[in-house]
Specification:
Strand order of the largest sheet: 1-2-3-4-7-8-9-10
Order of helices and strands: EHEHEHEHEEEHEHEHEH
Distance between the termini: 6 Å
Radius of gyration: 18 Å
Shape: globular
Number of strands: 10
Number of helices: 8
């Protein structure tokens, strides 16, 4: 199992760069950042893609990625261009997580002056993902969609990762799981608070694997990442608690975990010695 850490893009630079280097030195396999303009009232909140470009210069082995890119306020062409650029800066260490985006101001759903219905978000998510996939695979690339179009774009040239950097999709419903099975390299699970998260994740993995089989994909080849820290599970309580939870989710089919860098005064806080012990345990999973 690969274990990564979600970083908070709220510190001043270059101190934030030191934090990324520290995360890599602790042995984390991946480093992630949320794609928001602001989150839960915290500002300033640095841009996800600019943060990853800077983090790529302070790390050398850790994979980097978004959890998750939002089609609410990002359009495909400049996003694909940023993906190519960071893929080159990082020398092929970029993974892009993508989701449908939320409806509340805390998840950037209102910044465009309108609310998207669940169906509209699903439509935009599918079209956005397909267009970015095309832009990163073909050069020149052309597509005409309901929400975005592109004509003769040459973005894919120069990519390090082929046929493109990995796309991992956060999807729960039947339509999103079908899209994941068709296009994605990985799937992102974020069980809702108040649920039985292990049972919920196990059930969603079963449905994802069914969708992969229907699409002619090998289910075992799909990476499956669990975002932790949004349920009552004690992921950062101790190294033993972490190892027990990691083992249970591995049995359920999860291949990747995302913990949170400790953030004082929040639900994601943890003593430094405990966090280091968890990192050390994670290196041996």
């Amino acid at each position: 199992m690969r274990v990564g850490v979600v970083m908070w893009p709220i510190e001043e630079w270059p101190a934030m760069g030191d934090r990324w280097a520290e995360a890599e030195s602790l042995g984390f396999d991946t480093g992630w950042v949320y794609d928001h303009l602001a989150w839960r009232g915290h500002t300033p909140w640095d841009d996800a893609y600019a943060t990853l470009a800077a983090a790529a210069t302070r790390t050398s082995t850790m994979r980097l990625g978004t959890l998750v890119t939002s089609p609410n306020f990002r359009t495909p062409i400049p996003t694909a261009s940023a993906i190519r650029t960071i893929d080159r800066i990082s020398q092929g260490r970029l993974t892009i997580g993508v989701g449908a985006g939320g409806a509340s101001r805390t998840s950037d759903g209102e910044v465009l002056g309108r609310q998207f219905t669940p169906r509209e978000r699903a439509d935009r998510f599918a079209e956005w993902t397909r267009e970015v996939d095309l832009l990163l695979r073909e050069s020149p690339a052309s597509a005409t969609g309901e929400h975005w179009s592109v004509q003769e774009a040459t973005i894919a040239a120069g990519l390090v990762q082929r046929p493109r950097p990995p796309l991992w999709l956060a999807a729960n419903g039947p339509r999103g799981l079908r899209l994941t099975a068709e296009l994605a390299d990985g799937w992102i699970a974020n069980p809702p608070d108040g649920s039985d998260p292990l049972a919920d994740t196990r059930d969603r993995i079963r449905r994802l694997e069914d969708a992969c089989t229907t699409a002619g994909r090998e289910p075992a080849a799909m990476r499956k990442l669990l975002m932790t820290g949004f349920t009552a599970e004690p992921w950062l309580e101790s190294a033993d608690a972490f190892a027990d939870l990691a083992g249970a989710y591995a049995e359920a089919g999860v291949t990747d975990l995302a913990l949170h860098w400790p953030r004082p005064g929040t639900a994601w806080d943890a003593p430094r010695d405990v966090f280091e012990a968890i990192a050390a345990r994670a290196a041996h999973l």
